[in-house]
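Our consortium's second objective concerns turning raw sequence data into structural hypotheses that experimental partners can test. To show how far this objective has progressed, the report includes one record in full. It was chosen at random from the queue rather than selected for favorable results. The single chain below, 232 residues long, was entered without modification.
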Amino acid sequence: MEPIQKKSTVDLAVEKLIEYVQGGNIEVGEKLPAEVALCKELNISRTTVREAYRVLQSQGYLDIQTGKGAFVKSKERDFVQEATNWISSHKVQMSDYLFVRMALDPLAARLAAENATEQDIDDLCAIHKAFVEAVHRRDNETLELLDAKFHERIARVTHNDLLLSLVRITNHYFKLLRQTSFRFEAHAEHALMPHEQILEAIAGNHPEDAAKASTEHMLAAFQDLCGWQPEI
């Protein structure tokens, strides 16, 4: 069972403000009550109010204008805007992860192409087929799981336990990044062709082609997530 998590004062303030915005108390474009009034009504500090505002701004609810206050931007959570903000603020962290994957994934693909059995290829084909279907459904949660499963299955085919362990570690750190990235429809679509090329190279026992396709996959990920590509 999952442990019970205590909510912070900021989290509770965010929930209250979302209820206020969505409850018919205010319209899009209108200004929220002054910070002092919110502090008194919610019995919280101005620091908590400002932190809650920042959270709501990142989620697309508010537009904070310096010297003017906080205005309602939308009554619905903007997941694409939230993902954009997250990616923008984690570029260094993401580039670290992608550089590690740039080293691991092509090696795994190359070794998989040398060692894959018919059963391995069938398993990879099934995962890829499910991934394609999830892209068409725009099922972001399933996409994250299947993307991780696809790359881990490739690592298993290598029969290299250390490499498999390293891929599993990067998958763990990549979980939030994948969830965020796949909120952009184009990012999921950009993974389709590279996955297919990697799979074809592994199925055809072409190690260099598999490594090349995997490298190109990572370069495309750099472009999508960081806005640039490293020189190789």
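The partners drew two points from this record. The first strand starts at residue 62 and ends at 65. The mean pLDDT is 88. Both points have been shared with the crystallography group to help prioritize constructs.
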